[in-house]
Structures are given as C-alpha cells and as structure tokens.
Amino acid sequence: MILAIDIGNTSAKYAVMDNKGEILFFESLKGSWDSAFEKVSEKFNNIQEIYVSNVAGAQPELEAAIKKSNLESKWLTWDSPIGKKWLNNIPEGYGADRLAADIGAIAACPTGPLLVVDAGTCITYDVIDANHTILGGSITPGIALRLRAMHEHTAALPLFEPEGFSPVIGTEIEGALRGGCANGVRWEIEGYAREMIAQLPGIKLYYTGGVPLVFAPEIEKFVVHDPYLVLRGLWHAFRK
What we know:
The chain is of the alpha/beta class. Helix content is 38%, strand content 25%. It is built from 8 helices and 10 strands. It has a 5-stranded mixed β-sheet with strand order 3-2-1-4-5, covered by helices on one side. It has a 5-stranded mixed β-sheet with strand order 8-7-6-9-10, with helices on both faces. 35% of the residues are buried. The model has no long low-confidence stretch (mean pLDDT 94).
C-alpha cells in the first residue's frame, strides 16, 4: 500500500491506495500532518511508500511527519525523470498537480488525445495529443477565487462558499454570485471543450476538482469525471 498526498493552494488531500491503485481511504486534511499519519497508521499497518504532489511551497510539517514515519517519500515535480517517461514537452515549472492529473488521464486513456481540466483554486486546462505531448493549456480563476475577488474588490458584495445552489438566473445576491461564478466556469469549460473537439477529433475530457459540474449533453458524452485523478496519477507515476 502507498499513501498519496495532494497539496493544493487552499487544501490538502490524502489517500491510502492498494497495490492495484484502488483507493481504500480518502480524506481532506483537517488538522496536523502528525494526526493524519496517526489516523492512517491506526487503520493500515503496511504502508510502503509516500507519494507527494505539492504546489503550495515548503512543507516542513509534512516533511517532519514523513521523517517520523521512517517511510520513503517520492515527490513529483515538473523535472522529475518519471514525468518524462509519461509526457513529452513538459514546460518548465509545470505544476505537480497538473502533471499528476495528466499522468492519471494518460493511464486511463493511453490512446489520447486528451483535455485534462483540474478545477481547484485555479482551473487548469492541459491539451495532450495522442503521442502524449503537451500541446499547451490555460489557467483561469476557480469558483472560490472568483467569489473572493468580487468580495474583496467591491464595497458591498458578501463572500459565499462555492458549494451550494447555483441558479442560472439568481433572484437574490447569493444565487446571483454563486450562480454567476459556477455557471460561468461550467460554460467556460464547455467552450474550451467545444474548441478542442473541433481541433482534435476523438478527444476525451478528464475533469477533476472540488466542485462537481454537469455539462451540456453534447459535451458530457466526452467527459470522464474523476475527483481522485491527481492521486491516481501519483500512483501510476511511481508504481508503473
């Protein structure tokens, strides 16, 4: 078994995965890494390694917890040799979460082409051809970031969480704000998908992120929803 850890800009998640890549336990970090490791060790006594994707800077607390565990850790970065075994043309400074999500999508659909969308703090769009070459992508603000930006840069707009009812036509301020952001993101992804479908016939869209979205039927048929895509990518990167 391995412990896979995904540290994003606003949250961290971890999962215990077996030797076939199945997720046996998953949780978002709520306290310290020491307490998280204690919980995992109480449930599982045969963790072999720790795989990490981190985009949030130095992690001294996590590194200390890993040291206490006496387990080997492997950290995925844009210049990791393992990444180049999966993908061509990895840009300098490419986010570890993007790389892991891309690897997870390739492992699931090796024939490509692929559009990998990770809707976290920011939304990343990665376009990968059938030869596993990264053609490029885009980065835009995520739903929570859009809500926070409107709150912080206006005098009167309140701050709401991204989860919740998101009407197309809001009848009060909460619905108008959340609906505008959530549906705006949905339509943005659909527009990006339509453009890539036209340019790369046969493309499949892998969507992962904190807020589940349902797309228009003509787009949904191309979409694979996988909230654990980054964690699965970590497993594939180092186990295969």
